[in-house]
């Protein structure tokens, strides 16, 4: 596990996923065997790795990725996982694939489509199993939205509106709640590269493949303060306003911003409008309104709003227990490694996310809409 000292690597992948799988007694493979993950923590800072290992009673850590990948016998690892800052990722993934390891990685898999596709091709050629984190698909809110789609609730789906974002502090008078590399293009930062990989798989899996993109980016906050309190120029986009067309004609419009204040119930919300009904899904909640229960507002600016529109939606019930999304996907990937079988959230799927981000940035730079060609290995 490379990058476990980071936000995602530590909280979501180590603690909430692999340690949670150990706490439940391992992963039941369903054939009488139980898979027991034994993490080897990898990173650049020995002190930080040792502290995490001691805190969680883990035996293995190293600052030497090559040595970990080259280990044989008892010490050999089966899977390489990457949650490093994006710029460091492709090189490490290449090394792991060359060493014959199965690979599982955070998104974006690379900073450009050429690199992302090359990684997918290398993994296929090496015959290793590969997966890319697509955690949003496993969120309760989106699982409930998927249930509505699968149950035919919407009829024809017309449009999807996504609103993602929150205020990320500049770092001077209050600490920034995201790492500073996110705001430097040269270090792999930028909200388009960060969020479009998510929007690609969310739209693709729920509504249809993205066939064109038009995006407008901005760097609304041009100066920020880093982890050491030093000011730096923000060179990456901190907001992107985008319009996507999907294969079936549905229109999707998603705003993503680290320079917006939240007047929503959740940090991301998607409103889906269909002929027969509409729904608003967030990370955890999903609310729906059927056409039979749709109010009939009449435009009259001379009168105060006569209805409490928010109260007219119905909560979609959980009807089950939802796991942490990262853990749910780790379990599917580990099962895939152990048992084989199809697994579609792979490096080619990851490359589609990078492709959409790259085309979104190109669209913003040129001021025009771009088609999104279908990728193949
Ligand atoms: N799936 C999601 O929802 C989600 C959310 C946030 C971030 N991410 C992705 O996870 C990755 C990590 O993001 P984060 O917010 O945890 O960042 P972070 O800065 O908190 O952690 C990055 C990790 O990489 C290491 N690192 C940083 N620069 C490095 C370099 N040049 N070489 C080697 N290692 C380096 C750090 O030591 C740390 O362990 C990013 O690729 C990001 O796109 C995914």
Describe the protein's topology.
Layout: H1 7-23, E1 27-28, E2 34-35, E3 40-42, H2 46-56, E4 60-62, H3 65-70, E5 79-82, H4 89-98, E6 102-105, H5 113-126, E7 130-132, H6 140-150, E8 157-165, H7 191-206, E9 210-218, E10 223-225, E11 231-233, E12 239-246, E13 251-257, E14 268-274, E15 277-281, E16 286-290, E17 314-315, H8 325-339, H9 347-366, E18 370-371
Parallel strand pairs: 3-4, 5-6, 6-7, 8-13
Antiparallel strand pairs: 1-2, 8-14, 9-12, 9-18, 10-11, 12-13, 14-15, 15-16, 16-17
Bound molecules: nicotinamide-adenine-dinucleotide (NAD).
Can you walk me through this structure?
- The strands form five sheets. This protein has a nine-stranded mixed β-sheet. Strands 5-6-7 form a three-stranded parallel β-sheet.
- The chain is built from nine helices and 18 strands.
- It folds into two domains: 7-135 and 326-354, NAD(P)-binding Rossmann-like Domain (Rossmann fold, 3-Layer(aba) Sandwich); 137-320, Dihydrodipicolinate Reductase, domain 2, CATH 3.30.360.
- It has helices at residues 7-23, 46-56, 65-70, 89-98, 113-126, 140-150, 191-206, 325-339, 347-366, and strands at residues 27-28, 34-35, 40-42, 60-62, 79-82, 102-105, 130-132, 157-165, 210-218, 223-225, 231-233, 239-246, 251-257, 268-274, 277-281, 286-290, 314-315, 370-371.
- A hairpin with a 4-residue loop joins strand 15 and strand 16.
- The protein is an alpha+beta fold and 377 residues long.
- The structure holds nicotinamide-adenine-dinucleotide.
